[in-house]
Design goal:
- The chain is an all-alpha fold.
- Helix content is about 65%, strand content about 0%.
- The chain contains 14 helices and two strands.
- It has a two-stranded antiparallel ribbon.
- It is globular.
- InterPro entries: Isoprenoid_synthase_dom_sf.
Length: about 280
């Protein structure tokens, strides 16, 4: 046998193609909200007052996802994500949380009281249909890693808008939402624990697994961008008017940006910088 056959597997001869090489958008720095430090401070202060542990990662994800939004919207998303991170640690709190969403009293537990505060800031501005969709999403289970799909579900209430039902039900809009959700979920799974080891299948030694993940994410991102490009024609077809069309476009842009924010979060983690 040759030395290569003995000591190196065939796929180790050349390194895997990195995400930045597969996704042109990742070659440029991801925009971050100009008031990110104020957002982080406000979210941390809110968390402490609510009895929750601050989570800087939540603020930075919010700052990237809503890089060009009002500071109020970014801060609200950061608070929600801080709350979501705590819910992941206390999944038993989901039942009383859903009770609060249904009109029940929050009691004294920090997690339910914090939810009541956030719910009161968002739910009254939204329709019954949105509230039902949001609580149904929570009821399907607490995210096992990262922030799950929570940022996607919070775009509309943080913006204070709703996508009209005819648009939301259309195949083009569903394609956008599903592609965005897939990328965020896969990035979360990439950093998840496996047998107690965070991101075990993305270790440098497992290049085949890296290549599969990179191929999967890159292909789905391409589909996401294709779906996003179809939204202007969709709003025109439904004759929504300028103001509503702009709101729909803002939400669509967020669905396009949130996976990018997740990717940046993953690639900034020391364990996975080699993927970028």
């Amino acid at each position: 046998m040759t030395r290569t056959e003995v000591h190196e597997p065939p796929y180790a001869v050349s390194p895997p193609v990195r995400l930045t090489e597969r996704l042109a958008a990742l070659t440029m720095p991801c925009p971050v909200h100009p008031s990110i430090h104020l957002v982080e401070a406000a979210a941390s202060d809110w968390a402490r007052l609510a009895g929750l542990a601050p989570d800087p990662a939540a603020s930075w994800l919010a700052g990237r996802a809503f890089a060009r939004c009002e500071t109020r919207a970014v801060t609200l998303l950061a608070r929600w994500l801080t709350w979501g991170a705590r819910l992941r640690e206390e999944p038993a709190a989901l039942t009383p949380v859903l009770a609060v969403a249904g009109g029940g009293e929050p009691g004294t537990a920090p997690l339910t009281r914090a939810f009541a505060d956030l719910w009161g800031a968002c739910a009254p501005r939204m329709s019954d249909a949105w509230r039902e969709r949001f609580t149904a999403g929570l009821a399907t289970g607490v995210p096992a890693n990262a922030f799950g799909r929570l940022p996607l579900d919070l775009v509309e209430p943080c913006y204070g808008v709703e996508v009209p039902a005819p648009v939301r039900r259309s195949p083009r809009w569903r394609a956008l939402v599903e592609a965005s959700g897939d990328v965020t979920a896969w990035c979360a799974e990439a950093a998840a624990e496996q047998d107690g080891v965070p991101g075990a299948f993305l270790e440098r030694s497992n290049r085949r697994a890296e290549e599969r993940v990179i191929d999967r994410v890159a292909a789905r991102m391409e589909e996401l961008w294709t779906a996003a490009r179809a939204i202007p024609a969709l709003t025109e077809r439904h004759d929504l008017g300028l103001a509503v069309s702009q709101d729909v476009t803002r939400v669509a842009c967020a669905f396009l940006t949130i996976p990018r924010a997740y990717l940046e979060w993953l690639l900034e983690t020391p364990r996975y910088r080699h993927l970028g």
